[in-house]
C-alpha cells in the first residue's frame, strides 16, 4: 500500500507540482475516483477545480474490457486493436459510443449544476486521476483540454504502468507520477481505502473547492 486513500494521494501529488501553484493553472479531475485526488491538488495549488467528463467505452458483454473513451466536446479515443480482438461490430461500437456520449452530457450537467466550465484558453490544465491503466480516459481528458485551448496540458497521477505513462507522454506536455506499477496490477492495490466515489461526494467536493477559491479571493 502506497496511499492511505485518494485524498492522501492528492496531498502527496501536490508536493510534486509547486511550479503550477496559482497563476493560470486550472485543475481538471477525472470522475469519479480522480475528483478527491484533484480536490487536494487544487487546494494546494490555489487553483480552480473543474471536471474533465469522460466515459469509458466498454466492450458489449465484457464490462471488464474497454476499447476507448469519449468525452465532452465530441472527443473520442478508440483502440482499434481491442475492437478487432473482441470482435466488436461497427453497429456495436456505434451503439456504445452513442450511449456513453449521452451519459457524458448528463454527467456534466449533474456535476456542474448549470455553472459554466472554467476557461482553459491560454491556461495550464493539470489533469488529475487516481491512477491510469490503459490510458484511454487520460487521453480523452487531454483532448478535452486541448480542444478548449489550453496552452499546456499536464497529467498528474499517483500511480500507473510504465508503458502506459510512456505512451501518454505523446499526448500531454508533461507527466507527474509518484509510483509505477504493472499493467496487470490493479490501481486499488496501492490504496488502503479505495472505496467507490459517488456523485454526491463529487458534487460536495466541487462545491467546497469553489467556496475555498472564493474565500481566497477576498
From TrEMBL:
Pfam families with a match to the protein in the record: Pribosyltran
UniProt keyword Glycosyltransferase, yes or no: yes
The keyword Glycosyltransferase is annotated on this UniProt entry: yes
Residue ranges of domain Phosphoribosyltransferase in the record: 10-169
The entry's keywords: Glycosyltransferase, Transferase
Organism: Nocardia puris
Protein name stated in the entry: Putative phosphoribosyltransferase
Matches recorded under InterPro entries: PRTase-like, PRTase_dom
Domain of life (superkingdom): Bacteria
GO terms of molecular function: glycosyltransferase activity
